[in-house]
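User: Sequence in, structure out. Go.
Assistant: Echoing your sequence, followed by the structure tokens.
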Amino acid sequence: MISNSGFSYTQPQLQEIAADILKYARKKGASACETDISESFGQSVSVRKGAVETIEYNRDKGIGVTVYLGQQRGQASTSDFSRAALKAAVDAALSIARFTAPDPCAGLADKTLMARDCPDLDLFHPWDMPVADAIALARRCEEAAFAVDPLIRNSEGAGVSTQQSHFVSANSLGFVGGFANSRHSLSCAVIAGEGDTMQREFWYDDRRDAADLTAAEEVGRIAGERALARHGARRIRTREAPVVFEAPLAVSLIGNFVQATSGGALYRHASFLLDALGQPVFSPVVSIGERPHLPKAFGASWFDGDGVATQDREVVIDGVLQGYFLSVYTARKLGLQTTGNAGGSHNLRVKAGDDDLAAILKKMDRGLLVTELLGHGVNYVTGDYSRGAAGFWVEKGRIKHPVQEVTIAGNLRDMFRNIVAVGNDALPRGAKHCGSVLIERMKIAGR
């Protein structure tokens, strides 16, 4: 078993490696340089029908180096931390830069934008989990799912995972930052019924601190109840109707929004939300904030991949887009300022409404509750959206029967603008938080 105190390198040692890289790059003629050094390890266990399926250990480390010769840029990487390998990586990056065309947008961020004070965000919580205990925990999770009902006759397994990592980022402007973080999870997937009536469902929880995880028996019970509820699913006739995205799936809509407002999509003109800044892109019930400094949160950080300081901000207020997601490079391509989002968004939170899922279904009255999405049918250039779906048909605000083998379709531009309600049932997992979402109308293709 890998020791939870067993990082091969300390933070000061990673910082020393970074300093050596920057010093050597300057010596070899680089006008600027940045580097990222990381190390991680973990353990994953899965069981199926009580028998151990897999026991996996992972340990990884790596160094990425980016050098600049004016506006020429070169990148190289290595997993070898020896001094000879570090020098070879810098030399390789410089060689690439010499043969690269100048890019007027290339280069480090302005020094004044760099993060300076980086207090502890409580992101590192080692989990001392011997493999035998992990196996026992996974078994308890799966047993709880089977105990829900005799109709739950098969399993895709239950799993326990613990991962730990730390890193250091540094550049030639004097920025140095880094921290350790952890991620622990419990999951279970089971099958209700048999033959042509089989229905699969799952549940999981994911936290920085294992002490915050939902109990294994509860994860298993929820997985079992969700599978049982899907038993007897059938198709429905093609129609247009309101659609509710259950909270675990509603976050995917926020992911679609982030992709469409990211700098890379915008400067390539590959987004349906081009030139949308200051415009209503959601209905007035939607407000989205970015909160990078929340303790224990996924996506929390005092700086982004460019070393730029992150900050709380309102991305959407009452449906109106207040800001994009930009790195230094993509901001320059667009003639804008970086938003501190090199590497992605930081802990997005959609403002919750007053209703739980039951109240949202009553508000919908008649329509489709979607609990599973299949495929990746999203065109970010046009906004066209089409995905396979499963869930439940709702009549008079109550679930009537499970639904399978349908396709829901629309356009994200219309879907965002036609959000009627956002629930207060957001799950405390992941880096995007959003309650269930009611969309006024979508196309549903079935029989």
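User: And one key feature?
Assistant: The CA atoms of residues 263 and 330 lie 5 Å apart.
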